[in-house]
């Protein structure tokens, strides 16, 4: 292979002495050392997480319109918010007030048969509300219209029982159905258990005994 060394110009008839031929230089390749900064991950603030979870459930008809991936995203944010929950949320006065049920991972849980696939064809839900009144009264109400013509509602009244620092039980009286001017009780007594996983001035998160995740938004 031809040498890449450039020689000075000489007469073609005269060869330069070997000692005058410049030798190639050895280039020293500098060593570059990169340092990776290990910055700790910054956890999202509670206010940002609250805004995030509300944006994910908005306009989803209580979670019905969400895909499986959408439900996983809501669950992920809820898990992060649980890390900011007060130690004994059942003792917090923040639990009292009126709340809109804006999401449930199992959409039929808040409204029963009225929120089933067939039920939604007949009963169009307009709101699902839960009111907690001190010291131990719970009122649930599902408002709907029948085929978009006749308005109605189903309401339940229950007694709140504190089980431990995070779990509560509610024993409901038989539901009351109101359609137009007619109002009558039907069905049987029921009960539910719910763990409060996060509470603040704006939202409340809960997980039922069967694993359903609920997002409540304070009214007003």
TrEMBL record:
GO cellular component annotations of the record: plastid
UniProt cross-references to InterPro entries, sorted A to Z: PAP, PAP/fibrillin_dom
This protein's name: Plastid lipid-associated protein/fibrillin conserved domain-containing protein
Domain Plastid lipid-associated protein/fibrillin conserved as annotated: residue spans: 51-216
Listed PANTHER family: PLASTID-LIPID-ASSOCIATED PROTEIN 4, CHLOROPLASTIC-RELATED
Location, primary (coarse class): plastid
Protein localization: Plastid
The entry's keywords: Plastid, Transit peptide
Taxonomy, superkingdom: Eukaryota
């Amino acid at each position: 292979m031809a040498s890449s060394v450039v020689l000075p110009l000489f007469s073609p008839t005269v060869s330069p002495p070997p000692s005058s031929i410049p030798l190639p230089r050895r280039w020293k390749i500098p060593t570059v050392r990169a340092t990776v900064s290990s910055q700790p991950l910054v956890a999202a603030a509670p206010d940002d997480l609250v805004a995030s979870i509300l944006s994910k459930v908005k306009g989803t008809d209580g979670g019905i319109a969400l895909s499986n991936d959408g439900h996983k995203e809501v669950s992920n944010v809820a898990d992060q918010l649980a890390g900011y929950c007060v130690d004994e949320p059942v003792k917090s006065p923040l639990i009292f007030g009126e709340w809109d049920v804006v999401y449930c991972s199992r959409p039929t849980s808040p409204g029963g048969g009225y929120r089933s696939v067939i039920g939604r064809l007949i009963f169009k839900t307009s709101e699902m509300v839960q009111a907690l009144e001190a010291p131990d009264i719970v009122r649930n109400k599902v408002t709907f219209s029948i085929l978009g013509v006749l308005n109605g509602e189903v309401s339940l009244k229950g007694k709140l029982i504190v089980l431990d620092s995070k779990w509560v039980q509610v024993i409901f009286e038989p539901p009351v159905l109101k359609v137009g001017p007619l109002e009558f009780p039907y069905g049987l007594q029921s009960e539910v258990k719910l763990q409060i996983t996060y509470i603040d001035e704006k939202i409340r998160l809960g997980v039922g005994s069967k694993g359903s995740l609920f997002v409540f938004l304070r009214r007003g």
